[in-house]
Design brief:
Length: 375
């Protein structure tokens, strides 16, 4: 069902990673990475420690960063942390955030660039109760639709506009600023809520229906994916500054960071439970049940990777850029200056040389049983 390493192959891949990445980065491999001083870098995450970032924690825990000659500090994010500002200010060399956030930052003159588009699908959905009959975006006309706003609303607004509503001016639909929990939806104070497949959707399913005493199920809900509606945008990517990449040594470091990080994501694709354990060991902000659900859904945003993990899809990029320009009120649609693919391509070449499956064509989602409160 899933591609799995044997321990022998896994260890062989780890041993060869430093050489493969070094070759991809055109760096000298004489003497081995373990004999040279490790390059210290910091990676700033978008949010708190959770399975959304499992691949990076796995890369550190399994020794992939070390094998590539890197000493990586992973900094969790939070509601008051903006990864783009952290990286631009030099407190971290690399960051993780949605591509739309990078585009908005660049429009303000912050010289950032995406170097690996890890997620190739959107995890954003709109959900409603099955008994409301609101099972399409078109049926949301004159209804109350929740979203967190502050840049999180672009996909939803594009979806509503596609069906003749004007969410910016609350014409034909009423927009509700949704808190970072699902209380308003659970109390039926809003008709439709925004929900990431890997987080808020699970929160609903982890809640007991007060009328039955049993957990809600997907049969109680209409789940409308922005990916299906056609207004999906690209999310988590690895980025740095254009100034950082002016140095050949830094470009070499970036290639290694990408390769080792992607190797971490490959490991999490094939070892879901172990990666949940790795995440929990780094910060139990969310309980095991919720993290297990999240790990499975995050894998679904990465795999399969038709172009190879981390490679930008020009069509998905163009769609994302147009939506950001429209609802982020940019003067022009962001162009290809926002990203580069050469570093990721070099990283993939090294990974494939080391025997890693960078496409995951045979990957299938696991069946995860939801637990009360995500315990």
């Amino acid at each position: 069902m899933k591609h799995r390493w044997s321990w022998v192959v896994g260890l062989a891949g780890l041993a060869g990673l430093a050489l493969a990445v070094g070759a991809a980065a055109r760096s000298s491999v004489s003497g081995g990475a373990d004999k040279a001083a490790a390059t210290k870098v910091t990676l700033q995450l978008k949010w708190v420690t959770q399975a959304q970032f499992a691949g990076y924690y796995a890369a550190k825990a399994k020794g992939y960063y070390k094998a590539a000659g890197l000493d990586v500090t992973i900094k969790p994010g939070g509601p008051s942390i903006v990864p783009e500002q952290v990286v631009a200010g030099g407190q971290a060399q690399f960051g993780i955030d949605w591509l739309s956030s990078l585009m908005l930052s660049r429009a303000k003159g912050i010289p950032l660039i995406s170097i690996s588009q890890v997620f190739n699908k959107s995890g954003l959905t709109l959900i409603s109760w099955k008994d409301t009959g609101i099972n399409t975006v078109a049926k949301m006309r004159n209804k109350t639709v929740g979203n967190w706003l502050f840049g999180n609303e672009f996909e939803v607004f594009a979806a509503l506009a596609k069906y003749g509503m004007d969410p910016v001016h609350n014409k034909g639909v009423k927009i509700f600023q949704q808190p970072f929990n699902m209380d308003a939806f659970l109390k039926r104070q809003i008709d439709v809520a925004s929900a990431m497949t890997y987080n808020e959707l699970a929160q609903v399913l982890e809640t007991k229906n007060p009328n039955t005493g049993k957990l809600y199920t997907l049969n109680d809900l209409n789940v409308i994916k922005m990916q299906t509606v056609g207004t999906s945008m690209l999310e988590d990517n690895i980025f740095t500054t254009t100034n950082y990449l002016k140095s050949a040594a830094n470009r070499d470091t970036a290639k290694k960071l990408i390769a080792a990080s992607l190797q971490g994501w490959i490991y999490c694709r094939d070892h879901l439970k172990d990666c949940v354990n790795i995440v929990l060991a780094n910060g139990p902000a969310l309980p095991r049940g919720h993290q297990t659900w999240q790990m499975n859904e995050i894998n679904a945003l990465i795999w399969p990777a038709p172009k190879g993990i981390g490679m930008m899809d020009p069509k998905a990029y163009a769609r994302s850029a147009k939506i950001v320009a429209t609802y982020g009120k940019l003067k022009k649609v962001p162009g290809h200056e926002v990203y580069r693919t050469d570093l990721n391509a070099a990283a993939l070449a090294g990974l494939k040389a080391a025997g890693s499956d960078v496409y995951g064509r045979k990957w299938k989602k696991a069946v995860i049983h939801v637990t009360p409160g995500g315990k």
